[in-house]
Automatic annotation (TrEMBL):
Gene3D superfamilies: Nucleic acid-binding proteins (2.40.50.140), P-loop containing nucleotide triphosphate hydrolases (3.40.50.300). Residues 127-224 form the MCM C-terminal AAA(+) ATPase domain. It comes from Cryptococcus gattii (Filobasidiella gattii). This is MCM7. It comes from the Eukaryota. The keyword Ribonucleoprotein does not apply. PROSITE patterns: MCM_2. It holds the Pfam family MCM_OB. GO terms for molecular function: ATP binding; single-stranded DNA binding; single-stranded DNA helicase activity. Keywords: ATP-binding, Nucleotide-binding. InterPro entries: MCM, MCM_dom, MCM_OB, NA-bd_OB-fold, P-loop_NTPase. GO terms for biological process: DNA replication initiation; DNA strand elongation involved in DNA replication; double-strand break repair via break-induced replication; premeiotic DNA replication. One of its GO terms (cellular component) is DNA replication preinitiation complex.
Length: 224
């Protein structure tokens, strides 16, 4: 207890939060990093911690390309952490505005010209091959690979059966081949076209980063 009476009497006890007298608001901590095409060769992408409050929470998902405006402030330390920090402090950005640079499929607006073009494509018997050839047109060939990537972009319908089994509509694609056959270029093109995509390599990611890890959340002190 920090009161003067407890300090003089050296009273030790456990404090309990009074939830009825407390005020709560939504909070989310996210980390953003540089785009892969903006990072110099051989360098690690720089990252920044972002704090979101109120209606801004859950407005950013992994793989989104965003512009965030806010207040750049140092992380407030208390207790022993403040003594250990010394003259150096971590910083974060308190977000005030989030602007999505890539739109989701359900938020895209179609003009009459686009609707007319879609109607013409529906009647095209070679629609599947035509759409596949439009993926990375600067790369010649690889028709089967482009068709598989097209199915990956379009996706399917998630099925929920009566017995509780859930069949997801999305698929995974594993591309294997000799060096220099444009595997990376095709993947980079997909990340630009898809509403959400993250391009990474085995050298730039650890084994834990590519799978999963159990770690302690520094904000809530919970295991996540």
């Amino acid at each position: 207890c920090p009161s003067d009476v407890c300090v003089r009497n050296q009273t030790k006890g456990q404090l309990h939060m009074q939830t009825r007298a407390s005020r709560f608001r939504p909070f989310q901590e996210v980390k953003i990093q540089e785009m892969a095409d903006q990072v110099p060769v051989g360098h690690i992408p720089r990252s920044m911690t972002i704090h979101l409050y109120g209606t801004l929470t859950r407005s950013v998902n992994p793989g989104d390309v965003v512009h965030i405006g806010g207040i750049f402030i140092p992380t407030p330390y208390t207790g022993m952490r403040a003594l250990r920090a010394g003259l150096l402090q971590d910083t974060f950005l308190e977000a005030m505005h989030v602007h999505q640079l890539k739109k989701q499929y359900n938020t895209m607006e179609t003009t009459p010209e686009i609707q007319e073009a879609i109607a013409d494509l529906k009647s095209d018997p070679a629609l599947y091959a035509r759409l596949a050839n439009s993926i990375a047109p600067e790369i010649y060939g690889h028709e089967d690979v482009k068709k598989a990537l097209l199915l990956l972009l379009v996706g399917g319908v998630t099925n929920s059966r009566k017995d509780g089994m859930k069949i997801r509509g999305d698929i995974n694609v594993c591309m294997m081949g000799d060096p220099g056959v444009a595997k990376s270029q095709l993947l980079k093109y997909i990340t630009k076209v898809a509403p959400r995509g993250v391009y990474t390599t085995g050298r730039g990611s650890s084994g834990v980063g590519l799978t999963a890890a159990v770690m302690r959340d520094p904000v809530t002190d919970e295991m996540v």
